[in-house]
Amino acid sequence: MIMIKRKCSSGRQKIPIEKIPKKSHLQVTFSKRRSGLFKKASELCTLCGVEIAIIVFSPADKAFSFGHPEVESIIDSYLTPNSSLESSSGHQLVEVHRNANIGNLNMQLTQILNQLEIEKKQGEELDRVWKTRQSKFWWEIPVPQLGLHELQHLMFSMEELKKNVAKYATQMLMDQNNVPAPVNGPGPAPNGFGPFDAFGHKPPQIYANVNSSTLINPSAFNFRY
Amino acid sequence: MIMIKRKCSSGRQKIPIEKIPKKSHLQVTFSKRRSGLFKKASELCTLCGVEIAIIVFSPADKAFSFGHPEVESIIDSYLTPNSSLESSSGHQLVEVHRNANIGNLNMQLTQILNQLEIEKKQGEELDRVWKTRQSKFWWEIPVPQLGLHELQHLMFSMEELKKNVAKYATQMLMDQNNVPAPVNGPGPAPNGFGPFDAFGHKPPQIYANVNSSTLINPSAFNFRY
DNA sequence: GGCTATAAATAACG
DNA sequence: CGTTATTTATAGCC
């Protein structure tokens, strides 16, 4: 607009990138910078025609999200990487490593391969108990026949299962990649979940934490390039 | 730094926020702005001590992500909203609406409530067939006893189940919130998954798309405030 | 990938 | 939440 008064503000001051101590100040900064971040994201979407999802938890632990076209679908794409394992670009090192891991797993795999058959049969059995007649496998449960409570129960179950799988997947990779590692038996891994290796994401040694030139402190944030 | 030559660059030019037509140019802009976005995110993390996850799919559909502390755990928190349904701030309207939905569901719910018991029993049965003795419920499957194939199968199953649930959850809400809606039977909903309403996220009329003051074109992006 | 001039974001204040 | 003085991000080049 038009400047009527001059030199009436000290203007923007440089601030160190450290945790802001003053709480009210922090709240203001959070709001402004969150808006800025979302604006930048929207511009990137428009300029480049790409999909972006952002999830931010406020200092008060309230969830803010930005998504184009939709947070959930982007998360879905992220959690379900396109299974074209042989991509064209320079992922060969990744592939080699993954194949190596598979090779190392072969013993275990052979040892329990027959369980897969049992698994399928049990799937069909569960299917039967789930009282549906047309579904062939256990994940095709008759969702329409379930009510809210059932759905919530199912959700919780899946979350638990996911955590379980992630935990043991991490454990398994640790066990075979290093020294036998402090195994706590089948108990909870002491180091949280870890990456969902069994889901095809971030095998520990495959994707390095890349710091984007001099931009960001590499020790504190996780990237995937 | 020190300027040795002056006026040797045209400097930054204003560009319209529209899709960049020139492809090479677009690639450069994407890289630069993605770096900038991630830097902003990291600064917001540090300044305000908050958790952020960003997922970006490049024009070539490659996934880039930023997360502090970790993309997966933040996604987890986002998809599993803290079940303290009675929060302090002004979520009352949300609560009212949610309760209304629950009320509407009550008929269905009562009609099939007994299935919950059956569900539990079947869980235990599945547990038995999964050959574990200490686990009490079906989601506590003995992951350590599974091999890579089994885990991958499990992953796929869960993904299918998730899609299944999301699909029918959307359908269910549509059916009860509006006119009977074009029901395609139990077939795939024509409009993709839709939000995972049954999971406690984004009931259609509850969270409005809020445009952050004049910052972002409100019609194209999805926020949750 | 680096440089520079300029546009845009934002810290401090009202 | 609006203004202003600055810092920061980045478009156009090499």
Care to describe what's here?
Two copies of one chain form a homodimer. The first copy, chain A, is elongated, with a radius of gyration of 24 Å. With 225 residues, chain A is mainly alpha-helical. Chain A contains five helices and three strands, in the order H-E-E-H-H-H-H-E. Chain A has helices at residues 23-48, 71-79, 92-112, 115-129, 148-177; strands at residues 51-57, 63-68, 222-224. Chains A and B meet through helix 1, strand 1, strand 2, helix 2 and helix 3 of A and helix 1, strand 1, strand 2, helix 2 and helix 3 of B. The structure holds a DNA duplex (14 and 14 nucleotides).
Q: Give the helices and strands of chain A as they follow along the chain.
A: HEEHHHHE
Helix percentage range of chain A: 40-55%
Question: Could you name the ranges of chain A where pLDDT drops below 50 across 5 or more consecutive residues?
Answer: 85-117, 130-138, 179-215
Radius of gyration of chain A: 24 Å
What number is the mean pLDDT of chain A? 63
Terminal CA distance of chain A: 42 Å
**Strand tally of chain A:** 3
What spatial order of strands do you see in the largest sheet of chain A? Answer: 1-2
What profile does the largest beta sheet of chain A have? 2 strands, antiparallel
